[in-house]
Specification:
Helix content of chain A: 25-40%
Strand content of chain A: 15-25%
Oligomer: heterodimer
Largest sheet of chain B: 8 strands, mixed
Number of helices of chain A: 20
Shape of chain A: globular
Radius of gyration of chain A: 29 Å
Helix content of chain B: 40-55%
Structural class of chain B: alpha/beta
Strand order of the largest sheet of chain A: 5-4-3-6-2-1-11-12
Shape of chain B: globular
Strand order of the largest sheet of chain B: 3-2-1-4-5-7-6-8
Largest sheet of chain A: 8 strands, mixed
Distance between the termini of chain A: 84 Å
Structural class of chain A: alpha+beta
Chain lengths: 660, 392
């Protein structure tokens, strides 16, 4: 039994008393020199939960498993009930010494310091690496306690190879109360973060190793989030409404895991009589199931909304799985871009690291980009790490090849490769944070799906808690449309780690490494834009010559002008707007918006004359142009597709009104 | 001012904190020297000589798809069956074990879950255990409702190669024809999952089979089914006369007044119930009773009161009869009477595990030792076990 006994370290107090005396005795000739210290209370708050999402806790536990050299992590939930979650890995496991250290030094991690090696959690001689040589991705030893976001109590079962016992611990987390800081001030007290019971269990399987964590009492708040309670509450409220009109608007997300009734025993059905709607079939092997999940997003861009957003097509669970797949060191679902031969479907450019440099065409034909540009990512063999999450085997859900075509004149994707090592030779290490070394790609494609992949994602040693930053680190230039056509990943091999904030979900923007990467990225975007504009111009002039005879109505030209001004891309045309009578799309372009004709244009009961027919045709043309102008400013995508139809219907009615 | 909530109503503070006390769970079983009826050597005998033997024969005849043996069961906290199957079958035949277990101890509010979690950690680290294996906290009877989490989970991992319903209570004890969770509907629903299985599969059913554990209405239904066979199937009638001295309805009624007759009619009737359900599927599924093992739980019981049935279900792939007669159809489906007759003969040949072990000291010793080594994997005190097993 471990008790968090209260104790004070007299040495700290003595030092403080001496410092006070020194300050009092100081003067300009007698300056007191000392170092800054941090207070343990700050770190005590970490156990209270510093994360915004339940998924973050799972990400931290997967990171811990990776740092323990696990080759497999299996996460099991009782979705969609979410009363119990287990995470098991086949990593090194923890010796009793490591368990004791973790429990008594939350936040004062043994990773990244010399104690790590002595208790078996880091490599001998390199506290930044795992015993097996992986670069650590856990920042400090708070990973385990990130579960406080999810649960009140949890159980750890851990075993190291050669041990004939398992170590078992059950933990009840304590809530930090407002008055503790004042009543127990002093700064040297150890704060109680929870209660723990620890015992050893005999193990016949001496050779096995690994850690299992079972979250045993999920917080109702976290459970509601995992259950997508917000969406379902709204739908249930809607279902209880009597008006048909209102009821049609709110639908469950396109894909969802379903919901349980209040007893937690039974699944509820949706209006179509189904209990869930998943992109994969029950019984699909986990790898195939995950591929179907990824494909579902691209299918949505072809057959549903041209700009699919995860938070519209997925429930929280599926979105969480997606984000975890992006966050942890895993292989890509259909291969790493660096391993691809781009001949025939993309053009490659090498980015300059100079502030005013230009991207140069890269001869990458007939060989993988890795070879053409001497790229090394991933430094670790990420294929040796797999994560099974319920039915799915996770992989990075980013596709590069076989993407759908659009109306853009540029039919090939553009790949911009970056490679950079900055030593910061002009500044001392204490100020620069040491060298920064990274590789990167910026992938330009007319359409990025899902919308959440528009942006820059920074990985440190393969892991990312920040996901895609759609502002590209606060890029100021008004390139909104072009930015929506870029997926960028920056693979940091050295540095930047210390610029991560404690939750690993944002960067300290003042850190020299953050500042450098921001500048580098903005320069890369500028290089991409000028290259893309040049290529589009070349293609456009060829297209223009070919289409000289084509007539464009004045209405269409207004929309085209608005689009080109907003997108700053002469290679692109406004997305096609189709008012379908059948509900089926006739265009094969992935950027087309397809609406139901019947939902927007009222059926005219009276006999149609040639004059009214012509009038209707002009109104439809105008409506499509207005929709295109709305799309140019990103306003059409601001609402879900059903609302888009309602919006266009209202506009049409105004256009059609007589004005009397 | 403190919020006062009118009686029975929920306030904003409700449902924020899941636990009632600020305490970390303690180990459920402090000492591993308490042994339970199912730790007796005779259970190991059934495990080895019925379950294991049949599974082995099954996978030798037809290797499971993708080398994965799919198993649905009701494992205890110590997961002894799973450990045994892993060692005796999966390792031997290089077959992966993917199991779905039902045990209410896996629910978060169960005091036993720390123990189950440790057992699961041990079993899931076994080399041939598939990572998709799991034990869920739902009651098996929840399969009664096709919209239950339990049924959905069973669907996800199914169909199964082996189903092991190792009940402590009586399969036939519950009231029939009710909507609330019950074994009859649960098994019937499970058969709908199994109907997707194109290959033969096994079902083991362990049930109490004494009068207090059989519902009177259920027994009556089974008796009527037995009598119907007597009337309609000569081979059944002959076998019934030969083995149980039962030829008429009156003889059935008389026999079921006695423990032996009750056991025989109940078991035969139960097999016929399975047969009736399986044959109704399209295409029909044939059912063969492979063996019956029994032993006594109640002290002084005249007859075996706990019985383990091993059944093999074989999809027949027989085309339906064409109502218009356009399709020539010469294939004939399995005949209920013939299958019921075979089942009756197997019931008659049932093996009394108590008797078997009582007459074979060497075998008893072997089963004691084997149980001890199995229990040691689950962290029990082996010396104390041997003491307990030999004393009782």
């Amino acid at each position: 039994m471990v008790n968090n006994s209260q104790f004070t370290t007299s040495s700290v107090k003595d030092e403080e008393t001496k410092l006070v005396a020194d300050i009092k005795a100081s003067g300009t000739n007698n300056v007191v020199q000392t170092v800054l210290r941090t207070d343990e209370r700050v770190i005590a708050r970490v156990t209270d939960g510093i994360y915004r999402q339940p998924g973050s806790a799972l990400r931290e536990l997967i990171s811990n498993a990776y740092d323990a050299d696990a080759t497999r992590v299996v996460i099991k939930t009782d979705a969609p009930r979410f009363e119990r979650i287990s995470i098991e890995d086949n990593g090194h496991g923890m010796e009793p010494e490591a368990v004791a250290h973790v429990l008594l030094h939350i936040g004062g991690s043994a990773k990244r310091n010399d104690i790590g090696a002595s208790i078996g959690v880091t490599a001998q001689g390199d506290p930044a690496k795992s015993p097996g040589g992986r670069k650590l991705i856990g920042k400090i030893g708070i990973g385990l306690f990130s579960v406080s976001q999810l649960t009140h109590t949890f159980q750890i079962i851990t075993k190291v190879k050669g041990d004939d016992h398992r170590t078992v611990a059950t933990i009840a987390l304590r809530q930090y109360a407002d008055d503790e800081a004042t009543t127990e001030a002093g700064g040297s007290k150890k704060f109680e973060s929870g209660k723990v019971n620890i015992w050893r269990e005999k193990a016949a399987d001496t050779e096995t190793h690994g850690t299992t964590i079972v979250l045993t009492s999920i917080r109702p708040q976290a459970r509601d989030t995992l259950r997508s309670r917000e969406i379902w509450n709204a739908i249930e409220h809607n279902e209880s409404q009597s008006e048909d009109e209102e009821r049609q608007v709110l639908q469950p997300p396109r894909f969802h895991i379903g919901r349980v009734d209040p007893t937690g025993e039974t699944l509820k059905t949706t209006m179509d009589g189904k209990t869930s709607n998943l992109p994969w079939s029950k019984g699909d092997p986990p790898e195939a199931a995950f591929k179907k999940l990824v494909q579902s997003v691209w299918n949505e861009s072809m057959y549903g909304s041209p700009n699919p957003q995860l938070d519209r097509i997925f429930d929280y669970y599926l979105r969480m799985v997606w984000q975890l797949s992006l966050a942890v060191p895993l292989p890509y679902v259909n291969g790493h871009l660096f391993d691809m031969d781009i001949a025939g479907w993309a053009e490659a450019f090498q980015l300059s690291n100079l502030p005013k440099g230009s991207a140069l065409q890269l001869d990458a034909a007939g060989k993988p980009l890795r070879k053409a540009a001497a790229l090394t990512d991933p430094g670790e063999r990420v294929g040796d790490f797999e994560v099974l999450f319920d039915d799915l085997k996770l992989a990075r859900p980013i596709n590069f090849q076989g993407l759908p075509t659009t109306g853009n004149a540029l039919k090939k994707q553009l790949v911009f490769i970056g490679k950079c090592r900055e030593e910061f030779r002009k500044s001392p290490r204490e100020l620069s944070g040491g060298p920064l070394d990274f590789e990167a790609y910026l992938f330009w494609t007319p359409k990025v799906a899902p919308v959440e992949h528009q942006g820059a994602l920074i990985r440190i040693h393969g892991a990312s808690g920040t996901l895609f930053d759609s502002t590209f680190m606060r890029y100021q230039v008004s390139e909104q449309t072009r930015l929506r056509q870029i997926t960028c990943e920056i693979f940091v091999k050295e540095g930047l780690d210390s610029a991560l904030n404690i939750d690993r979900e944002s960067f300290n923007n003042a850190h020299p490494h953050s500042v450098y990467i921001t500048k580098w990225l903005h320069s890369a975007l500028r290089q991409l834009a000028s290259t893309q504009k040049r290529l589009a111009g070349e293609v456009r002039s060829v297209v223009r010559t070919e289409n000289q005879d084509a007539t464009v109505t004045r209405i269409q030209s207004v929309a085209a002008k608005a689009w080109q001004e907003e997108t700053d891309d002469i290679g692109s045309t406004p997305p096609a707007i189709e008012l379908s009578h059948t509900g089926q799309r006739s265009l094969d372009s992935a950027d087309a918006y397809v609406f139901s004709h019947a939902a927007i244009i009222p059926v005219n009961a009276g006999a149609k004359t040639a004059k009214t027919k012509a009038h209707s045709a002009i109104l439809e043309e105008k409506l499509k142009a207005i929709a295109q102008v709305l799309a140019s400013f990103g306003l059409l995508d601001a609402v879900p597709s059903r609302k888009q139809e309602k919006l266009l219907k209202a506009i049409y009615e105004i256009l059609d009104a007589s004005g009397e | 001012m403190n919020n006062t909530i009118p009686g029975g109503e929920e306030g904003h503070a409700d449902d924020i904190i899941e636990v009632q006390t600020y305490e970390a769970p303690m180990p459920q079983q402090k000492a591993k020297d308490i042994f339970l009826p199912w730790h007796r050597p005779r259970k190991q005998y059934v495990r080895q000589y019925q379950w294991c033997r049949e599974i082995q024969a099954h996978i030798v005849a037809r290797r499971p798809k993708e080398g994965i043996l799919k198993y649905l069961g009701l494992p205890g906290l110590d997961l002894l069956d799973l450990r045994h199957f892993h060692a005796a079958i999966c390792v031997q035949h290089s077959v992966k074990l993917r199991f779905l277990g039902f045990n209410t101890s896996a629910r978060p509010n169960s005091a036993a879950q720390t123990e189950l979690n440790v057992s699961m950690d041990e079993v899931k680290r076994l080399v041939q255990v598939d990572p998709l294996s799991e034990v869920i906290g739902d009651d098996f009877k929840q399969l009664t409702n096709q919209k239950s989490m339990a049924f959905q989970k069973a669907c996800e991992l199914g169909p199964y190669d082996v189903i092991n319903l190792d009940l402590c209570d009586g399969f036939g004890a519950g009231e029939p024809g009710v909507l609330k969770p019950n074994y009859y509907t649960a098994v019937n629903n499970l058969l709908t999952i199994q109907a997707r299985n194109p290959d033969p599969w096994l079902l083991f059913l362990t049930t109490r089979a004494d009068k207090p554990n059989i519902n009177a209405t259920v027994l009556q239904a089974l008796i009527e089914k037995y009598c119907a066979n007597l009337a309609q199937c000569q081979s059944f009638k002959d076998a019934s006369l030969e083995h149980f001295s039962i030829e008429t309805d009156e003889a059935v009624a008389k026999a079921t007044d006695q423990p032996k007759g009750l056991l025989e009619v109940f078991l035969t009737g139960l097999c016929k119930w399975f047969l009736g359900l399986a044959l109704e599927h399209t295409p029909p599924i044939s059912v063969e009773l492979i063996s019956v093992f029994g032993y006594r739980v109640d002290k002084g019981a005249e007859q075996e009161d706990l019985v383990s049935l091993a059944l093999r279900f074989v999809p027949m792939h027989v085309p339906v009869q064409d109502p218009l007669g356009l399709a020539a159809n010469t294939a004939r489906g399995p005949d209920e009477g013939t299958l019921a007759t075979r089942a009756l003969r197997k019931v008659a040949k049932r093996l009394d595990a108590d008797l078997k072990l009582a007459n074979d000291a060497e075998l008893l010793l072997k089963m004691t030792e084997d149980t001890a080594s199995l229990l040691s994997l689950a962290r029990y005190d082996v010396e104390k076990y041997v003491e307990w097993a030999t004393a009782s």
